[in-house]
Amino acid sequence: MAADYVDWLRREGRIVIVGASLAGLRAAETLRAEGFTGSLTLIGDEPYEPYDRPPLSKAVLLGKASPRHTELPRRRHLDAEWRLGVPAAGLDLTGKRVLLADGEEVEYDRLLIATGVRARPWPVAEEAELDGVFVLRTRDDSIALTERLRAGAKRVVVIGAGFAGSEVASACREMGLEVTVAERAGAPLVGALGGVIGAVAADLHLENGVDLRTHVTVTALEGDPMGRVRSVHLSDESVVEADVVVVSLGSLRNTEWLSGSGLGAGPRGIASDAGCRAFDFRGIVTDDVFVAGDVARSPHALFGYQFLSLEHWGNAVAQAETAAHNMICSASDRRPHMWMPAFWSSQFGVNIKSVGVPPMGDELMIIQGSTAERRFVGVYGYKGRIVAGVTFDNARWLEYCQRQIEQGAPFPVEYPTVDRRPEGRKAVPADFPDPSLPTHGPTVTLSGYSPADRRLVFTPGHH
Amino acid sequence: MTEPSLVARITDFANRADPYPLYAELRRTPVLHEEDDDPYVISSYWDIESLLHDPRISSDATNLTAAGADELNQAENTGLPPSFIRLDPPEHDRLRRIANSAFGPPHKPRRIDGMRGELHGIVAGLIDGLASGTEIDLVDQFAYPFPVTVICRLLGVPREDEPRFRSWVDPVVASLDPETRQGADPDFVRKAQEARTQLGMYLAGLVEERIKDPRDDMLSDLAAGKGPDGAMTMMEVLSTAVLLLIAGHETTVNLITNGMLTLLRHPEYLQRLREEPELAVNIVEELLRYEPPVQLLPQRTCITDIEVRGVPIPKGSRIWLMLAAGNRDPERFKDPERFDPDRDDLQHLGFGSGIHACFGAPLARLEAQIALAELARRLENPRLVADPPPYRPNAVLRGPRHLPVAVDGVLP
């Protein structure tokens, strides 16, 4: 019976994917590659076909790539219906329909939600609307910011020194613009990599001429009578003149359209089982709704079955492939999403890469190279095991870190390695900020325990 | 009489033409250590891959020599310092970065791609030269002169000096072969050292010229040493130049020759390559898996006790990474003994991996792609005259010494 349904679904079922970016596209391609011949609809709120976002804060700002031409390469012909430029506005789980903002409805037999995240806007609306205040997430954001930077901007203030903010600061410096970075924590990147590595990142900012202000928050954006941003007020009562402000305060998950649908969706994303099937708000797994990409959060076997939300490019691809596979296979052929978290950044001429979940680590050990030279391999330890690795200009050693994490290898690392320096002989506190404090957002969020964990606390939403 | 060890049979010249059954036997004991003085031989894909990224594995010649393991390393013990292929970080990284700033992105993004037209010209000229006979030796008439000409132009070494440096290159290359090395008499080792020194002195003359009168070539850039890492010392420039000159053609000769041999044994792909020249990309990648020009990496050791698949390997042991065996590991590849450029999972250990991953890979790929596509297009009805062809003695840099091919003619 169930096998008959899967056969029918693969042959002539209707699959709808909400979210037409990286995860949505790769899921669609995987569905076709695995033999799905039914109807396929992709719904996207932006008017563009799927494009790549990482270049928007790097090569595009530097003028090495056009913001209009970062289309994602296609793996295959899709034969899909594209509903672009129309956001999804609601979901009827019982009627198996997606409601669109233009009033139309799209029926599905299986649904994949890959609506991702959006940039967290500046919280004061009238200040956010000042001319010269930008966020950077979409192609349109990128076109607007790039044009403004090229049109003779003088001083840029970046609010928030996470990866995106740091990359923007780096690109602006490379363009010769004056840059001030305001960061609430003690250093850049602390949410993702901790204070020890953050200090290295801070040196990179300073050496490259960034006016880095840490332990400050922005209290107000001030405009001139023409409605253009003029200055930025900081919590230390200083004022920085600026004609461009880039708000880089992390992201918000695009789940509002699901409110009231009965799906377990909220500000932390949409919870799913390890096989990408979404939970409803009661914690019961659904049969026909799957999630993938930045908006998903799912339990990971390597990290104590904690629910991980990963805003990582590679995760979007891998999770989309797993979700697509599981959508059209029999129960016994389903696969768990077991992707090893990994991300990269490129800033101030340095290639930064990481595997695992650094914020889970409480200690850090530099096992190769030296932080003073900005070329090193660091591993993070938690309860006697290696849980993450980070490299600065040393990416070729990262696979080793990954294997060590997969094998639950012991921490601290006592054995010799090539290029071990005296500074790397002992473990030091990794120095992550208190997770209850707001930051620009780590790229991995440990957002709860597995349903089997007795520490689970149920907090009802405000539907 | 006991049977010779598996390692001895692999290095035995008698098995050069087809070592793959021996590799299959080898994989049955993925970490093989036959006798006390023998190396630890690693033959599974995943183990090799993992050791290539393992920071406890050293390529530094002094770590091997310190273990008293290998008199062969003495070949590098000459007036010249070791090149980066025989060094660990941070020295390796510094030298390789400087070398790369004269070779590839971000400093020289167009150096290799910019040679595309030149490579086509050299290939066209060599194939034109084949038109006179009905039987050609693909090695002497094509696969050897092509990469030599290319590496000479890239470095800035006069092509006409080839006969001179040939006599120095051969002993150095021979010294890389484990079998030659095992029976190495002091005289042989001394000759290899001398040859490397001679080659260095010859290149020193060229570098001196380039310092005075820089040109658009790698020797000029290496000598000038502009970049965040500063310059190499003169001696470092020479070791690097010796390395690039040798590695820049000895391996590519085999890639092209193995490639043509494999295509002649699989004529359906030769025919397809004729019709779809873009298939050269996949063919070359599959060749790097199926018949890799570097069969094994015999010069690694571990700087602490390690364990591979539960087998302890003591600090200072010699470790051989059998790239060619890993490339046909059924644990990794479906149908590994089949030459199949259409596999959707085209990966290989042909260029190694990790920090010592082949420096010249972008050039080697381009050379082999152009060479094979043009040979396929222009040679009329090519047939193997001898199968297997005669092989070079070397077990590491393995390939035919000659590849006699009969042709009906050469198309324009």
UniProtKB/TrEMBL annotation, chain A:
Residues 413-445 are annotated as: Disordered. Keywords: FAD, Flavoprotein, Oxidoreductase. It comes from the Bacteria. InterPro entries: FAD-oxidoreductase/Apoptosis, FAD/NAD-bd_sf, FAD/NAD-binding_dom, FAD/NAD-linked_Rdtase_dimer_sf, Reductase_C. One of its GO terms (molecular function) is oxidoreductase activity, acting on NAD(P)H. Residues 343-411 form the Reductase C-terminal domain. The keyword Repeat does not apply. The keyword Flavoprotein applies. Its cofactor is FAD. GO terms for cellular component: cytoplasm. Residues 417-428 have a biased composition (Basic and acidic residues). Residues 14-320 form the FAD/NAD(P)-binding domain. This is FAD-dependent oxidoreductase. It comes from Streptomyces griseoluteus.
From TrEMBL, chain B:
Keywords: Heme, Iron, Metal-binding, Monooxygenase, Oxidoreductase. Transmembrane segments: none annotated. This is Cytochrome P450. Gene3D superfamilies: Cytochrome P450. CDD domains: CYP164-like. PROSITE patterns: CYTOCHROME_P450 (PS00086). It comes from the Bacteria. It comes from Streptomyces griseoluteus. Belongs to the cytochrome P450 family. PANTHER family: CYTOCHROME P450 YJIB-RELATED (PTHR46696:SF1), P450, PUTATIVE (EUROFUNG)-RELATED (PTHR46696).
